[in-house]
Amino acid sequence: MTKIPGWLKAVSAVAGLSVAGMASATTGYFGLGYGAKAMGLAGAVVSNPQDSATIAANPAGMTKVGERVDVGLRFFNPNREAVLNTTAVGGTFDVHDESRRDLFLIPNFGFNIKLRDNLWFGFNNYGNGGMNSTYDRNLYDEAFAVLGAAAQGISGVCDPLSLPPGISSCAQLVPEGATTGLPDTGTLGVDLAQAIFAPTLALKVNDKNSLGASLLIGVQRFSARGLGNFQCFTNSVATNPANATTCPQGFAAVPSSDLTGNNSDWSFGAGVRVGWLGEVHPNVTLGASVSSKLYMSEFDDYAELFAEQGDFDIPANFTLGATFQATPRLKISLDYQRILYEGVNSISNAGPIFNALAGQPTPPSFDVSVPGGGPDSEWLGRDDGMGFGWEDINIYRLAAEYAHSGQWIFRAGFAWNDQPIPDSQVLFNFLAPAVIEKHATVGFTYRPDKQSEWSFAYMRAFSEEVKTSQAAFGIPGAIEMDQNSVDVGYTYKF
Question: What is the mean pLDDT of residues 361-377?
């Protein structure tokens, strides 16, 4: 076995210990692909294994990639923006902002070694992503300020007949950037980092079939800030009625200590992935893999933000694929994946909607005739508590790989997926605007010698918007995102 260079050991150690930033959302909050080679193929690698990152798609592929160490770095640029059209209620401006964090560096690392002729051991660490945003303007709080002024015109606190010249509504008295003065309503955003560490065994059953299994060890870090406007929807409020008017139905905003502004909290858990790779024809290879849900410990410091007292499991998913050797140099790959977001309450439970009778945002089952909405009300943090309203999605991938020579391999791919966020769920998803549906990728690998490979990939995720004529605040709203990413990877073969 060839000795691994010392510098590569150092880089691998750093990459292996890192927690990948969960900013790489492309298919909901899962990554499109993992590593430069997979990204060049738009993630279509379940039947076309490339390197140790194949563990993130199909662990059986480790029997095909040889002994190696892979390290890489992704430069990820998501552009996210959100708007609430407060001019719809008489304001002079719309509440609009772009998330200012738009560049992330995401490392990846893996290796593969042969234990015996038909048995391989590999490891890869990778991250999913998407729930990250930082808005300098608190979109919720500014909208509340305008809506409050509009309501004053109805209640008589502001007399519409005595407005200054040039002002036609009480809402116009609110200057852009005005706040409600409520606590915990400064900079708005969330930051969820997630890494999965996957030790893997792969068995070559015979010349044509391989099986693989990975233990998926999950680590998550989360923080939220600026969510003070949602204190009225926490379980603390539901269980502490008072004769105040700051919350729906006369509930006082009993401050929750587990909603927002608690710095970083950590969560740990595990699951499994199993896969099969088989040559069913000299020119056709099929692949399949399935991942269980990763059952994670709860975010205790955010027990009144996420459903089930802070639970945030990682959804189950499965993938099927086929690769065709169209010519001696050209491979065509097709993949289908389904991600089961609806299996995690904190992701899939519906968020707040507008209650026309109450004239305010409410949990979906809020009953205005019962203080607090009764025992079935979907308060933040309860088992049936409000979430982001995401739906299960299908992802389709088509890719081509061309071996120009022994030194150069070129790749291209396209992927498209269902929209995970329904129009009605725009408001909460200001925090996680993972609306991307279409992606195009290109990439290449250069082999300067028999032991080394350099790989590169570029991805463009095209701009997508989800909007509604009536967000939970009763006014139009929209979220939009587009993305660019560049992957660079180095491989050392034993």
Answer: 43
Q: Closest Cα partner for 464 from 424, 423, 427?
A: 423
Q: Are 108 and 35 in contact (CB under 8 A)?
A: yes
Question: How do residues 118-158 score in pLDDT, each as one tens digit?
Answer: 999 999 998 876 568 999 999 999 999 998 888 877 666 78
Cα Rg, the chain, nearest whole Å: 25
- Mind listing the pLDDT tens digit for each residue in 437-454? 999 999 999 999 999 999
Please, what sign has the CA dihedral across residues 38, 41, 46, 47?
Answer: negative
CA distances from 261 to 143, 177, 256, 289 (A): 20, 21, 10, 39
Model pTM? 0.91
Instruction: Give all domains of the chain, ordered by start, each with its CATH number.
Output: 22-226+261-351+387-493 (2.40.160.60)
